[in-house]
From TrEMBL:
<dbReference type="InterPro" id="IPR001753">
    <property type="entry name" value="Enoyl-CoA_hydra/iso"/>
</dbReference>
<protein>
    <submittedName>
        <fullName>ECHD2 protein</fullName>
    </submittedName>
</protein>
<dbReference type="InterPro" id="IPR014748">
    <property type="entry name" value="Enoyl-CoA_hydra_C"/>
</dbReference>
<dbReference type="GO" id="GO:0005739">
    <property type="term" value="C:mitochondrion"/>
</dbReference>
<keyword id="KW-0456">Lyase</keyword>
<dbReference type="InterPro" id="IPR018376">
    <property type="entry name" value="Enoyl-CoA_hyd/isom_CS"/>
</dbReference>
<comment type="similarity">
    <text>Belongs to the enoyl-CoA hydratase/isomerase family.</text>
</comment>
<dbReference type="GO" id="GO:0006635">
    <property type="term" value="P:fatty acid beta-oxidation"/>
</dbReference>
<dbReference type="InterPro" id="IPR029045">
    <property type="entry name" value="ClpP/crotonase-like_dom_sf"/>
</dbReference>
<dbReference type="Pfam" id="PF00378">
    <property type="entry name" value="ECH_1"/>
</dbReference>
<dbReference type="GO" id="GO:0004300">
    <property type="term" value="F:enoyl-CoA hydratase activity"/>
</dbReference>
Amino acid sequence: LRFDEKVRVVVFKSEVKGVFCAGADLKERAKMDDAEVEHFVKRLRSLMDEIASLPVPTIAAIDGYALGGGLELALACDLRVAASSAKMGLIETTRGLLPGAGGTQRLPRCVGMGLAKELIFTGRQIDGQEAFSMGLVNHTVPQNGDGDAAYQRALALAKEILPQAPFAVRMGKLAINRGMEVDIASGMAIEGMCYAQNIPTRDRQEGMAAFREKRPPQFIGK
């Protein structure tokens, strides 16, 4: 996906009705020794980092339970859409654990430190509407009879992104992600570098031409 230039947006969904991702298999985890657990969690954290660093926009379609590592997977995505009936939570403290695949870092960056601490300290589960109200998800939708309402909304959101200039979208994602980790002056410099890479693109010229000619632009990702 990272190197396929035809990919414009990646949507993460589950094939299991009622469950986005239920997190670690604790029965499997119980059979591991301490070293194996540490190795497993390091690999999981690395996977989430790989998802977060995909160059194209990513959308999590949360149609059911997203618990523990499942919510950490959704947090590694750029955008999140949830059914109102979905259940989400970093529930690790209820099992004697703490989030280990990015949850302690990505949740506060998403909803703020106070709410993140409350959710992690209590291990509370929240539904899609509560998640929307605190900014954890971008959209919440009533569940449908097929159980894929969030996925359908995620597809609609992806289709809003698809017509836009692919390279500009990628540079926008990079500028936001890198800029959020530094002071604003450094962030402005990062934005400037990303913008400079976009200036010589054919898509930028096409966008300007389409505006002048009052027609929809035809972007090619170059």
